[in-house]
Amino acid sequence: MSKLLRKPNNQEIAQGVTLVHDVTSENSSLEYVGFKIIDLAPGATYTEELGKQECCIVAVTGKINVSDRDVTYENIGTRKSVFEKQPTDSVYVSNDRIFDVEAVSGARVALCYSPSEKQLPTRLISASENGVEQRGTGNNKRMVHNILPDSDPSANSLLVVEVFTESGNWSSYPPHKHDQDNLPQESFLEETYYHEMNPPQGFVFQRVYTDDRSLDETMTVENGNVVIVPVGYHPVGVPEGYTSYYLNVMAGPKRIWKFHNDPDHEWILKR
After folding, report:
1. What are phi and psi of 140, to 5 degrees?
2. Which residues form a coiled coil (predicted)?
């Protein structure tokens, strides 16, 4: 059984609230990244008290209201399916606060966590603020929605991004890693990938491996799965006929994204 691949758990934790995924430092090898997916029925509310963690609340699909008990953002969320390929709304909430997420419609919500000591303002990250970026060439093309990049000072540790990869293409490729605290060349960032596919019966392949192959695992990843990347390179391959979506959460001791390409495959960029 893979320690890196998580399949949906779908545990009802309150009326109308289903906990789909729950990745924590207690049940994984991650220290800096936590991740949940919750499904909310219309009118249902999820409440959480944050200790020394910050949280980015992403309206993956559906419409929600989000409150930290001081400020409320109503009717946020922009899409019924991630494959509409339009950016969505998110809310950043800092440590030592309580937040409520109420479903206006049926909604799937991602909760992205990292340790935090310095309290920052709660902030709506509207869809219009997402930087939309095209990366790669040839069969290495993908589209990126930058929700909480390292250029945005709204968070202490969190980095959050969405990536769309078309049929037959590769993503997070050539293989790269960010597992050494060796700035300015490379930063140490743990990562999670939440995957969806269109059509939903599809799958992708994701490999997580280190230079010395002490970690080397290739996974068949299905719709709704999560992959944990504590260290190592982590490319994704998308089979013909299917489109891939993933939501990345990254965090580490320093909030900067500097990656290192696998030298065996870096030639691909130099063709």
Report:
1. -120, 25
2. none
